[in-house]
Predict the structure.
Amino acid sequence: MPTPESQCPITTDKKISIAPSVMCADLCNLETDIRELEKSGINLLHFDLMDAHFVPNMPIGLALIEQLRQKTDCAFDIHLMVQNNDFFVEAVANIGVQQVAVHAESAIHLDRTLSVIQGHGIKAGVALNPATPLSAIAYVIDRLDFVLIMTVNPGFAGQKLVPATLQKISDCQAFLNERSVNLPIEVDGNVSFENIPKMVAAGADILVGGSSSVFHKSGSRAENIQQIHQVISVGLAKRGV
């Protein structure tokens, strides 16, 4: 079973990671897509696991994640958009994943759920919808390995960026700094060639790339990844790194 330190470590570009969103891949030729991404240096695959209740969509399921686990050593980043978090945490833990984010809005016992995730040796994160304040993580911050900022409302690919979320990324970085906490900030939603420099400059460390970047029709997977690296550099320069 792969670990975060296996063939696909979770860092790139001065600790900026690119996490292709599998729901935006060509699901009829998924293994081909994964192989192309591996050759491009991708080290983290992002899975949006939905239940059609917390969000009105269900693009991929547990069976697909389980089958892909046998096909690649890349680390698996699971974003749970579900009502029954504990059920899905146990399910993906049995498959073998490296990090899991649960939504603050759906987790009834957030501290306990994060503890369960970490008890499996998996990195635990909290996802925050655009309108959810950062205060939602204030009392579980010691449980966190990363924070996931949603820059669109969850459930569907191809949405426009919620403008206020760029400031929220910056506010999240300040929120963590004020508490002397060093956690990666993951961003998910319209992570486009245009938006990536602004997201990175604001403090984003993990970029969930979908149809507006990794899987953009303008180029091959490799060409799109190369362009992402270029715009990451622009963002890092603005951040002063």
Notes: The radius of gyration is 16 Å. Residues 221-239 form the longest helix (19 residues). Strands lie at 17-20, 44-50, 75-81, 99-103, 123-128, 146-150, 185-188, 206-209.
